[in-house]
Each structure stands twice: as C-alpha cells, then as structure tokens.
Amino acid sequence: MTADPYPRHAVLVIVGAGPRAIGLLDRIAANAPELLDPARKLRIHLVDPHPPGPGRVWRHAQSPLLRMNSMAEDVTVFTDNSSTLEGPVRPGPSLAAWAAEPGRYPPLRPPADPDVREELRSLRSTDFPTRRVQGAYLHWAFHRAVADLPPHITVRVHRTTATRLTGPADGPQRVHLADRAAPLEADLVILAQGHLSAAPTPEQAALAAFADRHQLTYQPPEFSADADLSGIAPGTHILLRGFGLAFIDLTALLTEGRGGRYTTGPDGTLTYHPSGREPVLHVGSRRGVPYRSKPGYQLRAERAPLPRYFGPEQIGAAAEASRRADRLLDLRRDIWPLLAKEIGYGYYHELFHAHPDRTTLDWPRFLAAYDTHDWYAPETAALVADAVPDPADRLDFETLDRPLAGLTDDSHEAFQERLRAHIEADVARRSDPAHSADLGAFYALLSVYGQLPGLAATGRLSPDSVARQLDGWWHGFFSYFASGPPAFRLRELLALSRAGVVRFVGAGLEVEADEVHGVFRARSATVPGHTVTATALVEAYLPHPTVERTADPLLAALDGEGQVLEERRSGDGEDLPTGRISTAPVDGRLLTRDGPHPRRIALGAPTTSRAVAAFARPRTDAPAFRQNDAAARGVLRALGGLSPGPPLPESPAGRASSNAGGAKKSSHLARLAVGCGGDR
Description:
Elements: E1 10-15, H1 19-35, E2 42-47, H2 95-100, H3 114-122, H4 131-147, E3 153-158, E4 162-166, E5 173-177, E6 184-186, E7 188-191, H5 202-213, E8 217-219, E9 237-241, H6 245-254, E10 261-264, E11 270-273, E12 280-284, H7 312-325, H8 331-354, H9 363-372, H10 378-387, H11 397-401, H12 412-431, H13 437-457, H14 463-482, H15 487-498, E13 502-506, E14 510-514, E15 519-523, E16 531-534, E17 536-539, H16 553-560, E18 566-571, E19 574-581, E20 589-592, E21 595-602, H17 623-640, E22 672-675
Parallel strand pairs: 1-2, 1-7, 2-3, 3-22, 7-21, 8-17, 9-12, 9-17, 12-13
Antiparallel strand pairs: 4-5, 5-6, 10-11, 14-15, 15-16, 18-19, 20-21
Helix pairs in contact: 1-4, 1-17, 8-13, 12-15, 13-14
C-alpha cells in the first residue's frame, strides 16, 4: 500500500466571508487543477459573523429601502474575456443574467424571502436592485464557488468574530475566535474583512460628548444599515453632513422608512406625502450638491479603447522622470492633466461617434490634434471650442466638480430653487441618451481608477498626493461623478425638498457646537447670513480607513502588538498616515517591521492595494479580480509546496464537518460546513 505523501491537510483561514471571499474561492477553484496536487488536501476556514457571500454590507437583515447604485446588468463577481489573468477565466452570470434564468445556474437555492423572490422575478437588467437582492446573488455565488472546488478542497464557515492572529512567521498561525477557546491553526491567513467601522476621531468624540451634555443626538460615520436613528424624534431639525450615497440611504430610512410615501401625478411629477413621523433634514457638504445620478442609458457607439493617455506606459514614464529629477510627483500638478485628458478622450470619443451632428470636425482630425497637446494647453481649449460648438457639449471639469463655486443667493428659499433646478438638470441629462458622452467619460474614469493603484505603488507620489489628494480629493471626485445614486433617488429628493422635509444648506458647510444654547449650528457661504439650528447631527458618510482607530478586534490586536503597519507616506519634509493597512504591492502580503509576512495576506478596501470593489461591471478587467487571481495562485503555490509533516493541531471546531440542521447534504455541501457560534 502506497503511503500518503501528505499526511496532513494544508489549512487556509480567510477572515471575512463576503464578496472578496467569493472571488478568492472562485480563483482557488480555477487555479487548483494546475497548482495543487490532488493528493494534497486543503481545508479552508472562513470566519465572519455575517452570512457567507453577502457579508455585512449585503446581508438580508436590512431595510428593503436600501438599494444598490448599480444596474443589475452592471454587477458581476465573475471573470470574463476582458480579464487579464495568469490563471484561467471562469465566466459566470451577472446579477441580471442570474435573475433572468435562475434555473440555468446551479446550485439552485431560491431565496427564502418571498419579497426577494418576487423582486428577482420582475427584475429588469436596467433596474437598481435592493441590497437584499444583491445579497441573494452573492449567497448563490458563494455556494457556486464552493461547489466548483475540487474534492480535495473543503470549506468550513465559522459564524463568529476573529479576535486575534498570533503565531511565528516561520510556523503555524493561530486565529482566535470570539466564541471558543481553541484557535484555528493555519498555514496561511488571508484578511478580507472589507470595509470596517472605526472608533471616533477626536473631533467626533468631542461632538458626541457635546451631544451627551445637552441631550442632543450625534451619529458618527457608520454604514447606513447599522446607523442608530432611533433617537431622532418626529419633527426634529437635524443636520446631515455629507451629500453622497450614505445621505441618500439615511434619507430613505428617515422618510419612507417612517411611513411616508410617494405618488406620481398625471404630468409625471413626484409628490411626497409625509407621515408626520419624519424629522426635518438639513443637508450640506463641501460641494453643496448631491452626487451626479447614474446614467440611465447605454453607449450609442463602440466603447473607447482604453487606456490611451494614462496606462502602465505613462505611469512608468512619470515615475522615471520623477526619479531623474529627484522630485516626487504631485497628483494635481503632474498627474491630473493626464487623467483629465484620458477622461476627456472617453467623453469626446462617444460624442464624435454617437452624435456627429453636434461636432464640426471628423474624429481622426480631432484626435490627431487632441493627441498633440496637454489637457490644459490653450491649443486644446481652442480645438474643443472649434470642434464642439455648443458649450453644453464641452467637458468642463472645474464647473463639474464645484458647481456652486463663486455663487451666492440672497435668501434660503432662493437657494432651494437654485439647487432644485441643478438637480432637475442633472436628472434630465443623465436620463437622456443624447448626452451619452457622459457615459463615455464614466468608462474612462473607471479605467483611470483601475490604473491609479499602480501609480501609488511606484512610491513616487508625494505624501500629500496620496493621503489628501488620491484618497481624498480624487476619490471624492470619482464618487461624485461616477458613483452616484439612481436618477429616481434624485427625483425623490426633489419631492422631499418641495414638501419641506429636506432643506439644502449650501457649499463649504461649517458646523458649530454651540455650548451656550446647547444646539448644533450650520452655515454656508452660499447663503450669507443664513444659519441652521438643529438638535441632531448625523455624519452622512462612511468611516474612513484607519488602523489606529479600527473597530475590528483582530486588526486592533495586530496593531497593538506591532504586527501591522499603517501606511505612511514620507518625503518632501512630510510624513502623513493614510489609515490603510500596508501590504506588499504584488501579492498582498502583510507588511511588518521585519518586512512582508510569509504567512499573512491582506486584501481589499482597507489596504494599500486600493482595489476596493469586490465585484465589478462585466467586461472591465476589474483590478480586484486580477488581485484575487494573483493571491489565489500565490496561496496554492505556497500550500502545494509545504513539506510533508505532522498534522497541525486541530481545534474541536475543525475536527468534524457538520451542516446546520442535519439535513442530507448535496454534493457541494459535502465540502461545506457551517459553524454558527458552536458545533452544530
């Protein structure tokens, strides 16, 4: 009888069982036939208190009022023929395709909630689904990923929190769990917790203390589904600081979520009917306007071939020029003109090809001249003015980014009218395919967004460029232009404004904690002399990445033990933290004071990879999918190369596979066990 060449399982622990874990399992399944000997058994443990697949953000247990800001056809967790991977592509359906033909895609697991099933039955490809429907898709995708694993790879889910990660760099890693004494022991550990909550900043802590002293309400940054809005009484005047997607979600919860409703009149006008339980919402931000709505149309011409002006070649050239000049790059001065030219290329490519009647030059002549000059060169401005007669068809980044700059109104009501007109114009433009050039710019923005992590990885950006411009201004501009709400949300906002439930404050929002009168006050230079008084302040944005203040117990423990580094950017006399987990640029290994950790990897939103989205639009060569593939291949090579040896000590939870309820397992469930706070 031949001896087993591998007397023990290899063990991988993934902390986090949301969309990123789906991508990792999918790429492990795709690459295992090439990289992992079938005789080498691999046990994968997933640790997450939230449901595997949806995770925290997309879990079923949240309000059905909360929706995605992507169309169903624009969401996938699967690679496709656009993906540039070392491993094999394994196509799969988008959310829209899966909903349209659920019987075509095993394993067949209909959602338990009848409301979710009904939404899936009626879902159109251009609908913006509820988060619960996206959660159902991710739940199915997780089980498909497990089903696709070869027989020698098994998965166990632990519905609990990982609290610590210990173990020597050259030995077994121990993942400590909240609900049991014995840790999981592993050869490798991947941290994939996704977006994380954070403890308050000093300013936020001071605002919370002020609210406590004066019996007011203060809500720090939090994920909308987890925000505690119960202390906001009907009729209360509240301030919302932030005008992005979190504001949209919170507004839905505080209006429709409290019994209000919308009706559509014969002329199509939307009217909001208050329930009487709503507060009065005053909203403002730096920009003073809501995010641009998502385009409700498709490109009418072929997509522009990207990248053209900002890709690996241009990034390499900029980094080399920076080294030769011994001067770090400034994002706004040195890089933004390249980004602007790339986005402009996407915009004008669509305008010239889809709407040639609104241009005076043919595309080859325009492109030849456009290639020659920088975005901000006078020659480029003259070229665009000559070739695009209507100023409304020209791309103006400065006006786009700060539409209220330099504008003032004499009264609060005049500003309400101005901003309603601004929102109405945006909704009309983003709903009219005559303006499909905006979608061309959107695709170019996606391309640029995917290239920027490569620039950051060169180390040639100044500290301010990374900490304040890339993670601050640029991310905000991208979100404002390309990651806004569906148009129907802005129509609802208009109805809420007309009903007096939402009131706009203006740009450059300033908030004051008034100790004398025990209230929050807000003002904006947009309406000089106007002040808003409120008894509640809600931070309407998500927590920023932070290692120092993370609410994740495992990451906090690593930080306290000096086993994780927060990214700091130094140079030009500056040393600035970014809040992100420092990881190796190629394989995502966790960086420590001693260098890359050989047995720990961190991926996703809070890391220096800056590959935030765990799912993506189809056919966009998503950076996260490339990262998942590289990580999976690295893990399989490492685990496949482990020398045969004695078994790792095994926690009681890891000794047996069990499925909740004891039902007969399907073929893929035979490789999947679930631990939900205990062995059951």
